[in-house]
Amino acid sequence: MSKGEQTRAAILERAFALAAAGGLSTLSIGRLADETGLSKSGLYAHFGSREALEVAIVEEASRQFVEAVWAPALKIPRGEPRLRAIFRHWLAWGQRPGGCFFVAASAEFDDRRGATRDALAREQKAWIGALAKATRLAVEAGHFRPDLDPGQFAFEAYSIMLGTHLFVRFLRTSDALDRTHAAFDALVLAARAPAPRRAAA
Amino acid sequence: MSKGEQTRAAILERAFALAAAGGLSTLSIGRLADETGLSKSGLYAHFGSREALEVAIVEEASRQFVEAVWAPALKIPRGEPRLRAIFRHWLAWGQRPGGCFFVAASAEFDDRRGATRDALAREQKAWIGALAKATRLAVEAGHFRPDLDPGQFAFEAYSIMLGTHLFVRFLRTSDALDRTHAAFDALVLAARAPAPRRAAA
DNA sequence: TGACAAATAGAACGATCGTTCTATCTTGGC
DNA sequence: GCCAAGATAGAACGATCGTTCTATTTGTCA
């Protein structure tokens, strides 16, 4: 790895940490220059524009997201256990400083246009698609009912994650995590293959 | 209403529209001055500081939110019908330009401190509390099971609203509204008083 | 090691930000 | 209709933004 490449990697790591903690648009070139010990123009030469820097940050975020959430979940047996693992790791990821980078960034960019928004939407759609696929595997494994709509399950699971984000980070409700787990358990319970006839609870 | 008061009201209406469409922090004094036809300092005299303007905008947003969502829902009979009305009107409110002001603003301010954040959190907690109360009334009316936790119901309903916001505004998934209604229907169904014994569907 | 390319620094740019000051204009009560 | 109080304008402030330019230093490879 050449000198330039490793400097670039170091910049990105710091830039992602700052962007995750304070939002993509609060990150300024000048501040990032200070934090990395480089000059503004020295830093600039690595990316060419603010927007290119933002896109690079989004890609760095995806890399770290896969590493923190997706990779460990893929080691868990497919079906409900893997889905639970995904949820658990995502929850941990979302408790980092600044919360989930993607949730924060989507709210920031939902009205804008440009390469940053495109990169964010692409990554997030991929992640939701993967969540739906993991749900489909749970159906195929017989853990979930055959007529379950994986896209609907993914929508609802993602919604719970968004609720967690708001209640934990913004409202700071003390029982937010309990509610999160209760909601996810209820979602999974409703998705399960119908239990053998018992008396209703 | 004195001259100053009515100018202030006009400023706030315009300011809220701009803040709702583009986010609270993208709204700048200079731009607002242009849009209202006033000078920056003329505008400034009405609020005293940027933060005071933001707080006033939050209060204006609450006023409009009550008018658009809460007031009409209170005319509907309490219980499940009213809950459905709240959800319906909230959904319409969230389809205004810029989406739901509160959802957007909470994401913007979750890392910050100050009067604006406090005002936002206060209003939003009040609204979630009201949602929980409406749920409790549905329990008391016998529409929902007696052991239902209204706070949990409110958490999950709010989560669905957040999911809608993301899927409609950011991801722009075509079936987002269908998924929203399906999710809310499932939530209500699970909250209902247990149906008379039938064969499982 | 010498030479060329890559990497970085430093200064300057125009724009915009929130804020403050002073001056002028308008309104409302007597 | 006068006159104080209120409302508004205009200019200027220091700071910071993203960006560009020209040097200068540093790394890399023949």
Summarize this, please?
Two copies of one chain form a homodimer. Chain A is built from nine helices and no strands.
Give the averaged pLDDT of chain A, no decimals: 94
| Overall SS class of chain A | mainly alpha
End-to-end separation of chain A? 62 Å
* Approximate shape of chain A: elongated
Largest inter-chain contact set: A-B, 45 and 45 residues
Oligomer: homodimer
Q: How is the biggest beta sheet of chain A arranged? A: none
The tally of helices of chain A reads 9
How much strand of chain A?
Answer: under 5%
Helix content of chain A: over 70%
Please mark out the parts of chain A with pLDDT under 50 across 5 or more consecutive residues, or reply none.
197-201
Description of the molecule:
- Two copies of one chain form a homodimer.
- With 201 residues, chain A is an all-alpha fold.
- Chain A contains nine helices and no strands.
- Chain A binds chain B through residues 21-23, 98-99, 103-104, 106-111, 120-121, 124-125, 128, 151-152, 155-156, 158-160, 162-167, 169-172, 175-176, 179, 182-183, 186, 190, 194, 197, 200, and chain B through 21-23, 98-99, 103-104, 106-111, 120-121, 124-125, 128, 151-152, 155-156, 158-160, 162-167, 169-172, 175-176, 179, 182-183, 186, 190, 194, 197, 200.
- The structure holds a DNA duplex (30 and 30 nucleotides).
